[in-house]
Amino acid sequence: MLNRLHLTAIISITFIQLTPADKSAIAQEREGCFLVNSAGEVINLNLLCSPQESIQLTGNDGKFIEDYKRLAKSYSPEATDSLLQAVQRTPGQKIAAAKRMCAEAKSGVSLSEFKLRAIGQAANIENPTAKESFLAEADIISTLAANHYCPELANK
């Protein structure tokens, strides 16, 4: 019995070593952790894969994230999914981006200029869903930044 197991192990190792490895890579077509089943359906696995950012969302920050999630739902299902995954994973980054936008706006950059800058950056994104998500995020953050962190600049 032991000889038979030993022989099976040797044959398996030899077979694995002789099998050519496929070294090609395929770019991930969407953000986050997911599985595409045999029917082509995407199953979100973000709760299993990535740790959630630990941040206390209170006051303006909590309201900002709530409003971000609400506005994210007004885009295509693919963009909505991408936006919601991103804000769930890293809400602090979205808050920091809004606060940075307000700091720049207070130094003279208009909120319209932020949107134009985003449109210019989006021109380099080939994937339509990624492009829509990028532009949607820029729009959401510029709108909400003015509402939550620099209301004095909302009409400028």
Oligomer: single chain
Q: Gap between N and C termini, in Å?
A: 82 Å
Computed CA radius of gyration, to the nearest angstrom: 23 Å
For the report, how would you describe the main beta sheet?
A: 2 strands, antiparallel
Defining traits:
156 residues; mainly alpha
What does this structure look like?
The protein is mainly α and 156 residues long. It has a domain at 58-153. 62% of the residues lie in helices and 4% in strands. The protein has helices at 2-18, 46-49, 59-72, 77-89, 91-106, 111-122, 128-148, and strands spanning 34-36, 42-44. A two-stranded antiparallel sheet has the order 1-2. A hairpin with a 5-residue loop joins β1 and β2 (42-44). α4 crosses α7 (128-148) and α5 (91-106) crosses α7. The chain starts with a helix and ends in an 8-residue tail after the last helix.
